[in-house]
Design the sequence.
């Protein structure tokens, strides 16, 4: 389970414009089967590195999360991904989200993809993956 | 024979005349090089340099720690900086994980210098370091 991913989800669901930007919600790994509203987002943990003292105390954890926005059009995907990036940039430093003390986070990378549905649909899924890197103390 | 790994090591810093100590958030301790100077006792008529061991230099120890977010007055960096200005004789005790080597790396001396954290963009926790001249 991605702790940073959960924190990003909690943060974004409370951020202004969430309902309009991601009406399909944010889910870990993949959206629920019943989900039909788009755009929506899914997240997965990429890597997690801990910095420890010689005595074993964890001073901080840095995690990379890939958050993918899925929409029916490229414009929708781009608009929602931009909303996510701006929300992350709005508070780049220390904050407490749930029980997690986030020290910093940022959007590192953005990549656009297109995936053709296997059901023969004319429309494809327009996707934008944001790589969000953040450090937190547990 | 069991050998020793670094994980589990800790270090405390105290005044030599009190039992109060701080436990440092150590990332590394090292640089100690104990040496003895060799005195040249050659006579002018000697064809080969004649040298004998003379005074021992106990060396210096460098400690690197994570910067803790405690109030300035009780912050470890403040405490260590004060040891420079106050010229406090300090006791650095390194507790290694080994079962039989508790007093192997215990240093008495004076903190000579501190290095403030380098603040640059990145994901590393801020660190500071200090250097101690060992006197015994």
Sequence:
């Amino acid at each position: 389970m991605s702790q940073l991913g959960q924190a990003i989800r909690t943060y974004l669901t409370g951020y202004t414009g969430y309902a309009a930007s991601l009406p399909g919600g944010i889910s870990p790994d993949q959206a629920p089967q019943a989900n039909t509203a788009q755009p929506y987002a899914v997240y997965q943990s990429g890597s997690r590195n801990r910095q420890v003292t010689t005595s074993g105390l964890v001073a901080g954890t840095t995690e990379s999360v890939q958050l993918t926005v899925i929409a029916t059009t490229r414009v929708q995907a781009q608009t929602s991904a931009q909303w996510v990036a701006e929300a992350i940039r709005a508070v780049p430093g220390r904050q407490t989200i749930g029980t997690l003390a986030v020290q910093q986070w940022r959007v590192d990378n953005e990549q656009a993809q297109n995936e053709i549905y296997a059901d023969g649909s004319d429309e494809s899924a327009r996707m934008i993956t944001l790589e969000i890197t953040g450090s937190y103390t547990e | 024979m069991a050998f020793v790994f670094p994980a589990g090591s800790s270090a405390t810093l105290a005044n030599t005349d009190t039992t109060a100590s701080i436990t440092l958030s150590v990332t590394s301790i090292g640089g100690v090089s104990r040496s003895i100077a060799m005195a040249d006792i050659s006579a002018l008529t000697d064809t080969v340099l004649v040298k004998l061991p003379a005074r021992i230099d106990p060396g210096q120890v460098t400690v690197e720690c994570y910067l803790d977010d405690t109030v300035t007055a009780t912050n470890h960096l403040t405490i260590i900086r004060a040891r420079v200005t106050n010229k406090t004789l300090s006791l650095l005790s390194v507790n290694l994980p080994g079962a039989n080597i508790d007093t192997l790396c215990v240093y008495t001396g004076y903190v000579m210098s501190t290095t403030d954290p380098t603040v640059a963009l990145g994901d590393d926790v801020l660190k500071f370091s200090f250097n101690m001249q060992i006197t015994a």
